[in-house]
Amino acid sequence: MKRFLIGVVFVSMIAVSLSFVSETHAKDPIVLKMTTFLPKGDPTMTAWLALIDDINAKAKGELIIKYVGGPEAIPGFKQFEAVKKGIVDMIFSAESYYGGEVTKVAYTHLSRLSPQEERKKGYYDYRVELLKKQNVFYLGRAAHHIWFQVYTNKVVKRPQELKGQKLRVSATYEPFIKAIGAVPITMSGGDVYTALERGVIDGYAWAATGNIGFGWPEVCKYILEPRIYTMNVEGLMNLNTWNKLPPHLQKLIMDAMINNEIQYAQTMAGLAEKEYKDMQAKGMKVIKFSPEDTKWYVDLAYKAGWDEVIKRSPEIGPKLKQLLSP
Fold this sequence. Notes:
With 326 residues, the protein is an alpha/beta fold. It has 14 helices and 11 strands.
């Protein structure tokens, strides 16, 4: 009888011990590594970093998204490959850096809808399916309400006078810059200052934010007023990582993403307007075209963009245009 009681006690102790180990393990946080295509201090990062803070706070230690660095950790053009392979779990990056790999051509900057309108029209679900083929899950679009412009060191009175100018581009702007008759030169943001300083390029195309951080107003004179396109950055997650998350954490992340797209719309637009004024305060002058030339310029920007999408990706290009147009 005594041996039996000892045995019961022993088994009970083991059970308690195993239960403690299991409970301890269950409380270990899920840690996801995240990187971004721009440095942490860039204003374009504002909405995204707020999203990460929001998710971490609401997860209450069950999930932790850990920022492992920007382009200094993984070069921007290599981050999509890194998230595909699970080297990192999440990225915040420009679709122009990897659009050719997903749909043969970059296109998200051509959207004329808000993220909420994109979801209602079915674009969000379509984008999810496109990226799943790359082993990537599409979260959404932070910083959507920032526009793009062309900046130059050569004064022009009409947009047609840009013909022959050497302008820095990424895939976002290349079709438009070619259509307007300028010479597109692809280079990373980190090389633009020196290229402007040495006259290797006459100007550049870029978002309304980030210019001051790179110091470009020191070496560039003019801002062309017609505003074109919309910010093409996306939040992406490795598909295997996403699928392994418990459903309640998936919902937490998606709810936070949707709320962020709404909550930070005016914040991001405000940051762009502020930088627009600050660039002028630092000496850059705004060139405004006539109403007729402005319309011609904007129409050409979108026509050239969509023509390239449909040419390069005829199977899905028309559907993308339909989904992203009012």
